[in-house]
UniProtKB/TrEMBL annotation:
The gene is Parp14_0. It holds the Pfam family RRM_PARP14_2. It comes from Furnarius figulus. This is PAR14 polymerase. Residues 4-82 form the PARP14 second RRM domain. It comes from the Eukaryota.
């Protein structure tokens, strides 16, 4: 695909607090967290994902991150998040049905797109949603 992901993965973030990481990414990008991008920290695996709401050249942003003195000092790595057609939804309400999940994730208002499959896991209150293409998984 000629399309580029709007999300960047940062690995080895344990030496950089979430608030420090947000500030660092604002400094590198010149953008504002929450208005122009979001940051999701996954401490269990020492990873954070920055997703850009504002359209930017994420390949160029990754290059700037890898050249940044502070990023190197923290020994973090940055890479584009792979585009995928499948996502996992968690913390779903009890007794939710696959039809509701399908309609919800097909809603353009919710960032969705055409859904090709939903696998529901009621015991985990989760589901795997597969889109017809990667554009629906935002």
């Amino acid at each position: 695909s000629a399309e580029t992901s709007s999300s960047v993965v940062f690995e080895n973030i344990q030496k950089c607090s979430p608030s420090c990481l947000r500030l660092l990414l604002e400094n590198i990008s010149g953008l504002t967290v929450d208005d122009d991008f979001t940051v999701e920290v996954i401490p269990e695996i020492n990873v954070a994902v920055a997703t850009f709401i504002k359209s930017i050249d994420t390949k160029e942003f990754v290059k700037k991150c890898l050249q940044n003195k502070r990023v190197r000092e923290f020994k973090m790595t940055a890479r584009l998040l792979e585009l995928t057609q499948t996502i996992r939804a968690e913390n779903l309400p009890d007794n939710i049905c696959t039809d509701y999940i399908t309609v919800y994730f097909e809603s353009a208002r919710n960032g969705g797109g055409p859904v090709s499959d939903v696998q529901l896991f009621p015991e985990e209150n989760s589901a795997i949603i597969t889109f017809c293409n990667h554009r629906g998984n935002t």
